[in-house]
Amino acid sequence: MSKTLISLFLVIAFALVVACVDVTPEELKAILTNVPKAKVTNYAQYMNDAMDEGDIDTCCEIAAFIAQVGHESGDLNWFVEFASGSAYEGRKDLGNTVKGDGVRYKGRGPIQITGRANYRAAGKALGVDLENNPLLAQEPVIGFKTAVWFWNTRSLNKYADCSQANFDIITKRINGGFNGKADRDAKFAKAKKVLKC
């Protein structure tokens, strides 16, 4: 067998080992123990579909994504920011230039995209008019897609290698700091264990 064929075989074998299959509802419930039982099957499907479309497909990428989304949404229990959004009023860095934009474009979805500019960009990428219909972002089928959009526009897959140092970079890029670090880290460790990363 030539060296080229051996190299190709090793690359394919490695890809098969590293790639994960879809997360089952049972695995999702084992990682995010407080996910609503009645919704876990649908949530697993929406999440898998969004991750597949967004090329979040290695075990470490999936584990990191679930851990971060799980923390941000309280184990997929809330898809709307608790605060009114008034703190974002007039924030030009978020594209909030029209009176009422802060409340209208407050955080929604499992990663809770925020601001008119993010709603516009995510909607354009997904082919959904989120700017004129911001409440769609809190619907799980769209929300998981906005979370993957956010993840990919921040190039977070390149840090999702199962190392704690790089997971901390992901946390900082999502949160702007390290709020909820202990919970994020615990979810990441559990996800790696359940998914056998």
UniProtKB/TrEMBL annotation:
Residue ranges of domain Glycoside hydrolase family 19 catalytic in the record: 53-158
GO biological process: cell wall macromolecule catabolic process; chitin catabolic process; defense response
Lineage: Eukaryota, Discoba, Heterolobosea, Tetramitia, Eutetramitia
Entry annotated with the keyword Disulfide bond: yes
Signal peptide: 1-19
InterPro entries from the UniProt entry: Glyco_hydro_19_cat, Lysozyme-like_dom_sf
Protein name per Swiss-Prot or TrEMBL: Predicted protein
Single GO term (MF): chitinase activity
Organism, scientific name: Naegleria gruberi (Amoeba)
Keywords: Disulfide bond, Plant defense, Signal
CDD domains registered for this protein in UniProt: chitinase_GH19
Cross-referenced Pfam families: Glyco_hydro_19
